[in-house]
Amino acid sequence: MKIIVGSTNRAKIIAVRDAFASLGIQAEVEGIDTDSDVSSQPFGDNETMAGARNRAVSAIKTGNHDLAIGLEGGVKELDGRLYICNWGALALPDGKVFTAGGAQIPLPEEVAQPVRSGKELGPVMEIFTSRADIRQTGGAVGVFTDGTVSRSDMFSHVVLLLAGQWQFAAGNHGRQGQ
Ligand SMILES: O=P(O)(O)OP(=O)(O)OP(=O)(O)OC[C@H]1O[C@@H](n2cnc3c(O)ncnc32)[C@H](O)[C@@H]1O
Ligand SMILES: [Mg+2]
Question: What EC number is given for this enzyme (predicted)?
């Protein structure tokens, strides 16, 4: 099957490839830059989920794919801390959209402060780690879990939650209860 991802970020594309491969689904996965139609640093679950949905809906409109995946990283305030939050959406050519949330972990204050005052997490993480392009590799989640869960591992779990819902809706309940 043909899958389009609403991003050219490597971590997101690898996440989609890994998730479908682990389900035993043969997929040709391609990425395209789409507009998330939300801020480049989404704040809160609502805006982050909207970004994921907009990416998926926009990507499926390019035609010629069986499904589209949108993945979005954001931040949210919770219990006095700034958490990363992550959302995904799977869009079908018939207009159906499935959504799923991903991992959330708190950011250290040193990173949270500049993000609260308007900086994007990606560049702040590059300064914090002195490493370039962290958002395409392990990501903030990789750094603050000591490499235990990378950004693509984390998004891969979101994609499994999406693919599972899509299979359930299609009546393919072979894995139910496992
Ligand atoms: O090309 P796209 O798909 O936009 O990839 P992106 O890395 O910008 O991903 P998002 O737009 O979904 O992420 C929103 C913002 O949060 C940043 N971000 C989110 N999660 C991150 C992570 O784990 N590590 C570093 N930056 C992250 C990212 O750089 C953006 O500024
Ligand atoms: Mg972005």
Answer: 3.6.1.73
pLDDT by residue (tens digit) across 104-119? 999 999 999 999 999 9
ipTM for this prediction: 0.92
* 119 is annotated as contributing to ligand binding: no
Nearest protein Cα to ligand 1, atom 1: 9
- Residue 112 marked as a ligand binder: no
CA dihedral 23, 32, 39, 71 (to 10 degrees): 0
Going along the chain from its start, the domains and CATH numbers come out as 2-105+150-169 (3.90.950.10)
CA of 41 to the centre of ligand 1 (A): 7
